[in-house]
Amino acid sequence: DIGNAGDSLGVEVFVVGGFVRDLMLERPIEDVDVVVEGDGITFARYFASMHHCRLHQHLKFNTAVIIFEDGFKVDVASARLEYYATPAALPVVENSSIKMDLARRDFTINTLAISLNTETFGTLIDYFGGGRDIKDKIIRIIHNLSFIEDPTRIFRAIKFSNRFGFRIGKVTANLIANALSVGAVKHLSGLRVLSELKQIFGEDNPLPALETMADYGLDKVIHHELKLTDATCALFESVGKTLAWHDLLYSDDVYPRWAVYFMAWLHGYTVKVSTQIADRLMFPLKERELLLEQRIKAEQSIRLIEKSYPVSNQQMYWWLIYFKTESLLFMLALTKNESVRKGISHFYTHQRKIQPLIGGKEIKSVGIKPGPVYSRILNKIIDEKLDGKLNTMEQEIEFAR
Ligand code: ATP
After folding, report:
1. Nearest CA to ligand 1 atom 25
2. pTM (2 decimals)?
3. Mean of the pLDDT values across residues 356-385?
4. Which of 40, 117, 122, 162 has the most crowded Cβ, counting Cβ within 10 A?
5. Mean pLDDT of 272-288
6. 3-state SS of the chain?
């Protein structure tokens, strides 16, 4: 249908980038990126009106997102000749705007396109050897200044290499080392580094990526005290197992996966170093709190729990209720004590959601004056419920009285 719309408007339309790469790798496909040789916004408007889709337009960037009824999205970008300074002497095909568009991308594996217009439907466009590199399982940049031009590509190279199990090409690896030696990442804004790290730590198994980062000395650029130890590697493996367990049993319970690995990465570093890292990475306030306060409290609490175990339901509850899902998962990964692990997962599964059925209104109805006593009553109700008592509202009201 996209190709037909292109035919009707007389423009060439291609599906590009990650979609084609993932198609060749037979991996699940998430987003579809389309490039129109012409005005992408006009194309997207036309397509959306024909197929009753919603549309988000970014006029400044000449891009749009077509949103289908079921939520499926297609990103549309414009590749227009006037964007590029092209030597007039080159033959037309060399001048084509799709080639220019693809040439701006990061790695050869991301430069593939497939034509969608009826006459050429399904034709693979491969100007930079991306097809061969996918077969050879190799990450290669397109031009030598790539990492200097945009140092976030260093992190992207590591992310893709880890995700697909590809190696980073020799020249590309040398160019990464070279970019690092001239301080390219040092000057990168914290927010951009953070965004890349979140993506790397959000992958299925980020440990090989962390090792590659350490090989290049990227961690040291973020903070000179960061050092990849065997303990960190073991903790990453433990996080992997914990998250696999969690996601299998509680697939509806969403949490930021990257955050658990991030806590594991910073485990053991002092508040001072952690704060400096959070500053360098320009952590937003909420995430900062998670990484500093929650992580450090989690480390302290797990030690306390390990020392005091076995403890009552109530003690465990009041120790753990403060923590977010990601911190609890971090604690589960952190402890080597099997009983403690069981205790925390019992809390997670059975106790975390326990709430009184009654509220202030009901407490007032039994004649108790509002005040701090209300929260004491509600907490006591939770204590009772943790032992399986007070199952109905009536029982709770009676207890409050
Ligand atoms: P993912 O599965 O991680 O989303 P993707 O390849 O779709 O992989 P995006 O980050 O969504 O990655 O980027 C879409 C496309 O834009 C990429 O295929 C790549 O060609 C291009 N791109 C993204 N970031 C850069 C960059 N920093 N430099 C050059 N090209 C980039």
Report:
1. 106
2. 0.90
3. 90
4. 40
5. 94
6. CHHHHHHHHCCEEEEECHHHHHHHCCCCCCCEEEEEECCHHHHHHHHHHHHCCEEEEEHHHCEEEEECCCCCEEEEEEECHHHCCCCCCCCHHHHCHHHHHHHCCCEHHHCCEEECCCCCCCCEECCCCHHHHHHHCEECECCCCHHHHCCHHHHHHHHHHHHHCCEECHHHHHHHHHHHHCCCCCCCCHHHHHHHHHHHHCCCCCHHHHHHHHHHCHHHHHCCCCCCCHHHHHHHHHHHHHHHHHHHHCCCCCCCHHHHHHHHHHCCCCHHHHHHHHHHCCCCHHHHHHHHHHHHHHHHHHHHHHHHCCCCHHHHHHHHCCCCHHHHHHHHHHCCCHHHHHHHHHHHHHHCCCCCCCCHHHHHHCCCCCCCHHHHHHHHHHHHHHCCCCCCHHHHHHHHC
